[in-house]
Design brief:
InterPro entries: HD/PDEase_dom, HD_domain. This is Hydrolase. One of its GO terms (molecular function) is hydrolase activity. Keywords: Hydrolase. Pfam families: HD (PF01966). With about 160 residues, this protein is an all-alpha fold. The chain has a single domain, classed as Hypothetical protein af1432 (Orthogonal Bundle), CATH 1.10.3210.10. The chain is about 60% helix and about 0% strand. The protein is built from seven helices and no strands. Helix 6 packs across helix 7. The longest helix has about 35 residues. The protein is globular, with a radius of gyration of 17 Å. It starts with 8 loop residues before the first helix and ends with a helix.
Length: about 160
């Protein structure tokens, strides 16, 4: 699915002060879910979460901003251990610390960022927007891993069988 986030004027008004910063753009240097980088993943989570927050009368601005910043960490979680605890516990706290260096973070945005790994961590989200980002994050992770695999398998089947 191609997301037209760049042409969504409302969405861009919420994230334009963040999305083109060096800190956020440098997320493109880090692989995320096998076939995506962390910037692509963060934008996907941010934009899809924003759309759902709008649809469900949530705080679309806080959701878009926190969704963009939810994985604002600059290390390879597959090979580097940062701090005490699991990656699921540690990286949201690092992302929050980094986000606070970029912009003022509201209590809602803080809850979204810190609790986006609910399911892999114990503390449940406090707000519906936090649940939205949590679920969209999981959805995007699965899509980023499985969609390229599905496309590759489909191409092989078409080449082998000559059918769609």
């Amino acid at each position: 699915m191609v997301l037209d986030w760049q042409n969504d004027v409302e969405y861009m008004s919420y994230v334009e002060d963040l999305i083109f910063t060096e800190e956020v753009q440098s997320l493109s240097e880090h692989k995320q879910h096998r076939y995506s980088n962390r910037l692509e993943h963060s934008i996907n989570v941010s934009y899809r979460s924003y759309l759902l927050a709008k649809k469900w009368n949530g705080n679309a601005k806080a959701t878009a901003r926190a969704g963009l910043l939810h994985d604002l960490f600059h290390y390879d979680w597959r090979t580097e251990k940062m701090g005490e605890g699991t990656h699921a516990y540690v990286h949201p706290r690092i992302a929050l610390k980094n986000a606070k260096k970029l912009t003022e973070i509201s209590p809602l945005e803080e809850d979204i960022i810190v609790k986006h790994m609910f399911g892999a961590t114990i503390a449940p989200p406090k707000y519906k927007e936090s649940y939205i980002v949590t679920m969209v994050d999981k959805y995007c992770a699965c899509e980023e891993v499985f969609s390229p695999v599905y496309r590759k398998m489909k191409q092989k089947a078409v080449a082998y069988l000559g059918v769609v």
